[in-house]
Amino acid sequence: MQKAIVFSIEEFSVYDGPGIRTTVFLKGCPMRCNWCHNPEGFEPRVQVVKNLNGCERCGACKAVCPSPGACILCGRCISACPKNLIRFSGKEYTAEGLASKLLKNADYLKKCGGGVTFTGGECLLYADFLIAIIAMLKGEKTHTAIQTCGFADERKFKAVVSAVDYVMFDLKVMDRQEAIRYTGCDNAPILKNFRNLCAGGTPFVVRVPLIPGVTDTKKNLQAIADLVKDSPALGAELLPYNKMAGSKYRLVGKKYSPIFDQTAEPNIDTEIFIKAGIPVKVL
Ligand code: SF4
Ligand code: SF4
Prior knowledge:
Blueprint (H helix, E strand, L loop, with lengths): L2 E11 L7 E6 L20 E4 L9 H5 L11 H5 L5 E4 L1 E4 H8 L3 H6 L3 E5 L7 H13 L3 E6 L5 H10 L2 E5 L5 H8 L4 H12 L4 E7 L7 H12 L6 E5 L30 H5 L4 E3 L1
Parallel strand pairs: 2-6, 6-7, 7-8, 8-9, 9-10, 10-11
Antiparallel strand pairs: 1-2, 1-5, 3-4
Helix pairs in contact: 3-5, 5-6, 6-8
Bound molecules: iron/sulfur cluster (2 copies).
């Protein structure tokens, strides 16, 4: 039985593929992009998260904890907090269980030309789960999509991509050393999987986060455009840096430490893509 940890399910999304979609966020990511705004997606496990805004420091959560420093997910702190500031992040689903939940809206999604999108974190951490649930959704004629950073086992990547209807593939930092510096990962496997994506027949778009001085430089965007222009990509989608990116880090007990100028405005350079003949839009 295939299982995955889901940390959010968002309905009526209009930015995660064609039409109106239900977007499923799977928990866990191999990358650590310095600008990530969703740190709840880092760890591939259920966690207890605490919203410290509004905390009265009453100590009730600490007083009931049987295992400080090594959470055993007993949930006592959640019940003890008088302000309801503590919750579990992540819930385990079987492919069957999640498919049945998602299919409740299937008729509506179909009417809107939409479907279901899996993202994360990095959804390809759960490749076997994805293959199973995509088959169930497609069996009910529901359109499926994934959004991926492309940093994944090549065999699993190919298997999921050939199963799904539509792919949103992130291209972030093209220089290898800069990629390691800003994302924590070598980009060679990502570029290999981009070639795998191009060789398959699945429709896809490229997504580029515009991070000031990192991904939005002329050099980086030109390198992306040069790669995409000779590919079967349907287009490029640019995502300007979210200045609220750091707001959720305290929730998971982490500190947001950008190593770029997060106060600068991103360079929203659509011209580079237009000149290369690539349809482009800014999300
Ligand atoms: S879930 Fe239980 S073990 Fe974990 S922090 Fe809360 S009280 Fe402590
Ligand atoms: S129980 Fe709630 S309000 Fe009290 S210290 Fe813990 S998080 Fe803060």
